[in-house]
Amino acid sequence: MRFYKALILALVIIILLSATYVLFAPKAEKLVIRIGYQPSTHQIAEFIIVEKGWLIEEASKLGYEIEIEEYVFPSGPPEMESFMSGKLDVAYVGATPAIVEVSQALGKGAPLAKIVGSVNLAGSALVVRFDFNYTNPESLKGAKVGVFPPGSIQDTILKHWLKLNNLTYGPPESGADVSIVKGGPQELVEALAAKKVDAVLLPDPAPQILEAKGIGYIAVKSSEMWLNHPCCVLTISDKFISEHRDLAKLIVKLHIKAQKFINEHVNETIEIATKRLSKDWGYNESFVRMVVEKSLVEKVTDLIFPAELSQDTINGIMSYAQVLYELGNIPTLPSQSDLFDLSLYNEALAELGG
Amino acid sequence: MGSLSITSFLVIWEGVVRLRLLPTYALPAPTDVLRALYIHVSSGVLLTATYHSLVHLTLGFAAATLIAIPLGMLSGWFRRVELSIDPIIELFRPIPPIAWIPFALLFFATFLEASVFIIFIGGFFPIFTNTYFGFKNVPKSLVEVAASMGARQHDLLLKVAFGAALPSILTGLRVGLGVAWMCVVAAEMFGAPGLGYMIMEMRYLHDIAAVAAYMLVIGVLGFAFERLIRFAESKLLKWRKGFTLEV
């Protein structure tokens, strides 16, 4: 009888202790992080961070239970439209759409896309139809060129390059030397195949897809239009940074780690990119693997993945701001502190031992 | 009274934006819209865009009018014509004009042709339908009296029935013009130069004040077209004075 009483008492104590733990133990804070990206080999770092589970794993060590929501966009301008309306916390995006977003959002209460990392340099190309005789920029007179919407990297570089070569540009049938047709990557690939345009300026893997499908050939690399130009950047909303600085810093650290991973583990990177891009583009994996290899291994568009946000890149991005202002795409010139959160970046780098 | 209500509306709108009661990055103040309007007018961009839109409208609406009125006349007057084309008209009429955009972009070689086609589709059905009903509802007594006085078939059609159907035809033109104008903007959003094109350009640059400025221009022009048709009605339908409250 005594034994049974002791047993019941022990069971009650265990139940009470368990209930106390369940009710009062510190719980992981559940947080949804909304990440925007584009279906490009430029943004492989995003694929790596998510596919390898790094963000969820490392965030749990900080006491966060993370849920990631990814949103794919055809190009930077619509991505930044979503960012500006508060639908994204993190965006892998071209530097110029981020500049446009910040310029328009400043002082209006919208989240600002703060640049906290460099994603890639170069990596786009002007692909021309085989039956179009491209010899030099002048030979584009009368041509229709497809490109991402205004404010995108490719649109900015194309217009700057055309201006430098004394060529006017405008919408189709407007009388300009070069007609510019806007669209997303798949749309413009189809437009070139259907001969609705004569050339397209697109980021990887679109140029490689067009060459592989026998639709066109790379006539000019973007790095020839603008030497070693910065391209995509990692941006985090200033609101997210102020509310979850530790998480924002973690994202920057993981991004730097992912950039290094791309350069050190090429084969695994190719597999991760293939899996993601075949889903986003709707092509079979063997075809996508081939074009990803052309992008990452053969580097036909001079695509570079810098691990760090160098001063050269920062200067390059500030040059973009100047060009955007001259093109009339932004109303005022933003300052470096408007565009970047270098304190967050430097803290992350220091914690990584950089 | 009207200008007082508009002024009050503008003052309230300006106040709501300046006091940040609504997100300012999504809703520009009236003064921001006017500033954007000034910038785009002085650079010449707005006038160029307006010119292109008016060209698209003129070509598309003219084509719609030239085809819809004769077809509506013949359908409303001759039973055999009505029976032949009615199924085709009723099949295509419910399809919104903007649904034709993918087809137009693929089928036509130029953005101009594609835009004009979309505008044609937009204007065609209201003009056709109103013309058809105008002729269908010509009072029998008018036709019988004219016939008894020796009027031949073409006189009955062009002089008697056309006059009787004119109010309905003009209503069709007014509605058709409004729909065609909406289609101008939609068609241009996909690449042809014009006001619709500029709205998309400004959208991608997140310049919401400029978007609102172009919307304002579209609204003002649409209002002007509507007044133009009303003026034409007042001149062509003078005989209706005393028959109805309008004109």
Keywords, please?
heterodimer, A: 354 residues, alpha/beta, D-Maltodextrin-Binding Protein, domain 2, 11 strands, B: 247 residues, mainly alpha, 79% helix
How would you explain this protein's 3D organization?
The complex is a heterodimer of chains A (354) and B (247). By secondary structure, chain A is an alpha/beta fold. Chain A has 2 domains: 29-121 and 230-351, D-Maltodextrin-Binding Protein, domain 2, CATH 3.40.190; 124-225, Periplasmic binding protein-like II (D-Maltodextrin-Binding Protein, domain 2, 3-Layer(aba) Sandwich). Chain A is 49% helix and 18% strand. Chain A contains 16 helices and 11 strands. In chain A, the strands form 2 sheets. In chain A, strands 7-8-6-9-5-10 form a 6-stranded mixed sheet, with helices on both faces. Chain A is elongated, with a radius of gyration of 24 Å. The termini of chain A are far apart. Chain B has 247 residues and is an all-alpha fold. Chain B has one domain: Orthogonal Bundle (MetI-like fold), CATH 1.10.3720.10. Helix content of chain B is 79%, strand content 0%. Chain B has 10 helices and no strands. The longest helix of chain B is centred in the last third of the chain and has 36 residues, at 153-188. Chain B starts with a helix and ends in an 11-residue tail after the last helix. The model of chain B has no long low-confidence stretch (mean pLDDT 90). At the A-B interface, helix 4 and helix 5 of A face helix 9 of B. Chain A: It is found in: Endomembrane system. Chain A: Keywords: Cell inner membrane, Cell membrane, Membrane, Transport.
